[in-house]
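pipeline/complex-builder :: batch 7 item 3
reading input block
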Amino acid sequence: MPRMAFDIFSVLVFNGADSIKFIDGLSSNKMDFENNVVINTLVLNNKAKILAQLHVFYLNNMLIAVAITDDKVRFIDYINNKILGQDVSISDVTQLNHIDLIYDVDIPEQQVITNDKTTSVTINDNYILEIYSTTIERKTITNNLTAFTDWRIANMIPWYGYEISGKVNPYQCGLNNQVHENKGCYTGQEILTRMRTRGKAILYLKKIPNSMIKDQKISSNGSEMSLFLSRNQ
Amino acid sequence: MDCGTCDSASPVVIQAPEVVDVELTITDNAQKMLEQAFGEDRSMALLVGVLSGGCSGYMYDLQIVDNTDIDCQELAISGFRILVPNSSSHLLNGIEIDYEDRLMGGGFKINNPNAQSSCGCGESFS
């Protein structure tokens, strides 16, 4: 059960009656919550480039968002400016928690499991984010980036700093499944809808054995396989 | 997970937007429509607000209200009570409220000198 620690994760707690409406208005996926469900969504800028990837869930009547961003300060500043008079307050509890990514593990049926000071959140049926208080001793981290990258390539998972960055939109990095095609207005939506309806500039994540690489522009290089983004479906 | 529900969490400081004294205008077409909507009763007010969201980041929000708990500036324009929330005053200063009488895409429109861009339907701006 390999365990990784990344510094790209932040944990934000949203309180207030307008919290769901607020995140829903800013992001690319619908906030249709059921019990113990994690909603994976994206906050985009007005050119549809990715500002942050959010994994949103409920815990003890609070809305929690695990944010993955290459610039947390810029992202918090962005959402801060959008609150205006709405009943939303945000706490950044990143420093109070360890955030470990566990992969190559049996995925539980429930997407959110919590006990006293540990919350396990399943992302896309692929991996688990374990968030636990810093008052608990840190569990043993493997941090074998090569093994993680090989697993990620085998499971076709795009990642920040590789496929995903603030320079691409969701259709250019394999995050198509985090865009709800029937959702109404949110920042970046018009651009994504145009791309989809015209079938233009959409890139598809593909894996290729290293021995077969020719002129493909590789985004993640693994031991035996690699990932690249292709115009061909 | 430690949610910091007691005293331990560091709240993200919400930037209080700058409050500006709003000036706005209402076109003749919009005034006619407001007269129809309000009738003789001018005790009601037109609340002109902004919400986050929409294709460009912010959305206009027009409501006819009796009163509101929102911290607002109250303007009297052409005999109408206009309420503008202080939290969005910096985005609404200088706007013109217009009405377009069209079968498609008609209705109240906001012409906003603060908007850098707006979406196709005109309801959202940044």
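note: Chain B is about 10% helix and 35% strand.
queue -> next item
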